[in-house]
Specification:
Elements lengths: L3 E4 L12 H13 L2 E4 L2 H11 L10 E2 L5 H13 L4 E4 L11 H10 L3 E4 L5 H9 L6 E6 L4 H13 L3 E5 L5 H12 L3 E6 L7 E6 L12 E5 L7
Helix pairs in contact: 3-4, 6-7
Amino acid sequence: MKGTLTLIPTPIDDENPLEQKAFETLKLAVEKGDIIAVEEAKTCRRRWIHWGLPREAIQDFVLYNEHTRSNQASELLKELGRGKNVYLLSDCGLPAFCDPGRKLVSLCHEHSIKVTATPFPNSISLAMALSGFDHDRFIFEGFIPARGSERSKALKRILTQKEVSIIMDTPYRLQSLLKEMKEINGAREVFIGMNLNTCEERLVRGRLKEIKTPEGKHEFVLVVGGQNERK
């Protein structure tokens, strides 16, 4: 059984406490001997101690940043494939959002390894981080028109532009939205984050012509990959 990559959002200000679920998740990870991957050892060590997490885990931190990711991404992927869980922290904020962790998230999707995150209050940023798409530039489209020619025009424009785009729509329109998009450009890769940060969370990434989503109503954020993603 493969392991899980969990993104651990952390406070931007050092003086703020770590979110309770994230604290409990990391404490349990230490007890189980899972892998803690951090961006900078010195920064994370200081914050780790401030949050009151087990000090004995510090010596086992795995360094994952822009300088080490080329080698560490493949090593962490191997560990995940062997069933080891990995917990990813950046210096502050949300890992994999405009962050070196993006590459690891993308590799996990490509190798059918589960990705999730501890609570984060912004579904847009969270969906982008969990997508693993290259998002140096992205467009937030918000809620697209509900019906008619305006909806069709919006979807055609979104699916022909090269940038990553973020779409929102009502839960009951997810299936029809995917059908409409598939008819326009089934080769485009998308990510769908459903019921984020809930026990019913489901993440799906793939080409429009290939992906399958669970039936029923789901709160969701849909991310359209840029044209530089796999064809």
